[in-house]
Design brief:
It is a single chain. This protein has about 450 residues and is α+β, with helices and mostly antiparallel strands. It contains 6 helices and 19 strands. Strands 1, 2, 3, 4, 5, 6, 7, 8 and 19 form a 9-stranded antiparallel β-sheet that branches. The termini are far apart.
Length: about 450
């Protein structure tokens, strides 16, 4: 019995030890979860923050059922260097719209401006009021800080937003703001002031790309084409000269393959781009015989673009009513496959969420450098220029046939020259005979006039 009890005690103790070990593994997870809950609760709620301003009155912000705008009513900095944005959303009880990004410049208005789209995180909501945190942002340590807010964006909503009448899609819709906030540090106090700021609004927009034959890429030994991505647009200001454009867009590079060595697979690489493009920037594609090289300016008028490019009828209609074309990115396109599709090699890049941040331009003799209100728009996967129905080998065959035509002409000229040289005595004799026949009537006529005048002259004497 004692042995049995001893074994039972050992079993119970072993079981308790296992439970304690399991709990010891779970404790850090519980502690971490509690810490996360504490972190999310450290932010004050939106109404408490707004009511610290003695001039704030809830009655100034009524519910408007069909007003789908987002309006910034205040910004605030935290002691930890965070930036908060307070938003009035009139349609909240009927349609709850959440801001996704904020277009912001933190430059001194007297300096060179640059703009960035920052992601927003919703912290608290109370009726028509929302409190957001600007992610991946740290407040400057300067005594005076500037926050120029051009726009907020929200996700496109099929129930309230219009669908484009072309093959483009909109992922995010802009809500124009146009505010310049200045924040001063005065001792332990922080003072906020706001004035309206100017901006440019994109009124019409079309995203697409042109595909050009490029030929054999010798470093990879792949038959490649060049995709030239562009955005055509118009603004609410008549721009006479466009000098510089700042924009953002996303790219997804995809490689699909099927072969005996690597099997079947797909890989993708995603990248976000923030570019500044000037009027002087040009692009040149490399020479790759038998294909021609291409070149173009990054910034073109829509009329210039149309006159210099082959376009499908639908693309021409879209661009004809635009003012400017920005050619901002180039990528390669590889489409290699066997006749029965048993092996293939596809490489291509898709561009998405194209948005223009800033325009530096001149109109009526005045130069402007302004932030832009614009959506995030994606074009079709189909090129906007007609694609000939032939392969790389067909192009080589056509070029070779043209070469043969020129070669035949060259050989014919050589043969003709040789025959002329070989029969030159006969040709000389024939030309001499023909010349004598042609000249004979003139010689006879000359002799007749000579006889007529000379004989009459002599008969007088």
């Amino acid at each position: 019995m004692k042995v049995l009890r001893k074994k039972t005690v050992h079993i119970v103790l072993s079981f308790l030890l296992i439970v304690l070990v399991a709990l010891s593994f779970l404790l850090p997870a519980v502690t971490t979860a509690s810490a996360a809950e504490t972190n999310t609760s450290i932010y004050t709620n939106v109404m408490d923050d707004l009511q610290k301003d003695e001039n704030f009155d809830v009655a100034d912000y009524p519910v408007v059922e069909d007003d789908y705008s987002l309006n910034v009513i205040q910004v605030a900095e935290s002691s930890d260097g965070e930036l908060f944005v307070y938003v009035y959303q009139p349609s909240h009880p009927i349609k709850d719209l959440i801001a996704t990004t904020i277009r912001l410049s933190i430059s001194n208005p007297d300096d060179e401006l640059t703009y960035t789209d920052y992601t927003l995180a919703l912290l608290d909501t109370d009726g028509v009021f929302d409190k957001y945190k600007v992610l991946d942002f740290i407040v400057k340590s300067d005594s005076v800080r500037y926050y120029e807010i051009v726009q907020l964006t929200r996700m496109w909503d099929a129930s309230i937003d219009k669908t484009l009448d072309n093959d483009n899609t909109i992922s995010q819709v802009p809500c124009k703001i146009g505010q310049q906030w200045t924040v001063y540090s005065l001792g332990d106090d922080i003072v906020y002031s706001m004035i309206d700021s100017d901006f440019v609004e994109i009124t019409d927009k079309f995203v697409g790309y042109q595909r050009y034959p490029q030929g054999l890429v010798f470093d990879t030994w792949e038959i490649s084409k060049c995709d030239s991505h562009y955005v055509a647009f118009s603004t609410d200001i008549d721009i006479e000269r466009l000098y510089e454009v700042e924009l953002e867009y996303k790219t997804t590079y995809t490689h699909e393959w099927c072969n005996l060595t690597d099997g079947v697979g797909v890989s993708q690489e995603h990248e976000e781009h923030h570019d500044v493009i000037t009027y002087f920037d040009k692009v040149y594609t490399p020479d790759s015989w038998p294909f021609p090289s291409y070149s173009w300016s990054r910034i073109q008028t829509a009329a210039s673009f149309i006159s210099s490019e082959e376009l499908t009828d639908s693309a021409r209609v879209e661009i004809e009513n635009k003012d400017w074309v920005l050619r901002f990115f180039e990528s390669s396109f590889v489409d290699e496959k066997a006749a029965n599709y048993s092996t293939y090699n596809y490489k291509y890049t898709r561009v998405s969420a194209v948005t223009i941040l800033r325009l530096y331009f001149e109109t009526e003799g005045t130069v402007y450098n302004l932030g832009v209100v614009d959506n995030m728009q994606t074009g079709s996967e189909i090129p906007t220029n007609p694609q000939p129905d032939f392969s790389f080998l067909d192009e080589w065959r056509n070029r070779f046939n043209s070469f043969l035509d020129y070669l035949k002409l060259f050989v014919s000229l050589i043969v003709l020259g040789f025959l002329v040289w070989l029969f030159s005595p006969v040709i000389k004799f024939l030309f001499g005979l023909i010349w004598q026949v042609v000249c004979f009537p003139f010689k006879m006529l000359g002799k007749f006039f000579n006889w007529l005048f000379v004989k009459r002259k002599n008969s007088r004497y």
